[in-house]
Amino acid sequence: MHPAQQTSLMQTANLDVEIATTSLTSDLREGAILLDIDGTIVDIAPTPRQVWISPELRHTLTCLRELTGDALALVSGRMVSEIDLLFAPLELAAIGGHGTEIRPVPGTEPQTRAASLSRDLKLRLAALSELGPGILVEDKGYSLALHYRLAPDLGPALHAAVARICALMPSGTAEIMPGKAVVEVKPACVSKALAVRELMKYPPFAGRHPIFIGDDVTDEPVFEVIPTFGGLGFSVGRNVPGVNGHFDKPEDVRSWLARIVADRRNAAG
Q: Model-level pTM?
């Protein structure tokens, strides 16, 4: 990363709450931008299917893809195919399924990093919806998520039941991931952090210094690896120890990204 860009980023990082009013005007082709989706660039919805991508956000991401020379990637628990449908017609590099899929180049088939959870395990987990109304089952292909945003009182019982089921599985089979009103089970051999390390080996990401923005517990291991590449990490909604700064809410992230685009366009005349 160019020294001027690093200085600009560190000044931004120290602003914390004021970060959304600061922008970057350095050469973005020396860096890369990695973005979580839900709770980071889009607001958390009552159900995963209710998430909406605004035309403004789609335009911002399209411009950032151009400004970074395609070094813009979405890093999500959603499958890559679902990410494409959500952001259509825009296609970006992506990490899907919490690291079970990697697609360095938009428009190509994602690389698969792990097998899906077994049908038997998914059925046993899905049966936990009988704990009460409001528990929503989401099959993500490689993983399975149980959402309780509509039934918050059932959270403790749901977490305990998932832990009991997974404890019966062979060691190293499955990993439980707590999240915002959701408990998800995925293959144990993959993670967003491992996938980011792999993504950074491919052009145009190789040799770049990434900026990663995420909000959830599953994003915390990514924050730990970003400094390896001389990059910076920013959390959303809470100040995670070790990050370079934080945004209060996804709206602030969207505004900041839009400012980057506007300032770069103004600088170019």
A: 0.84
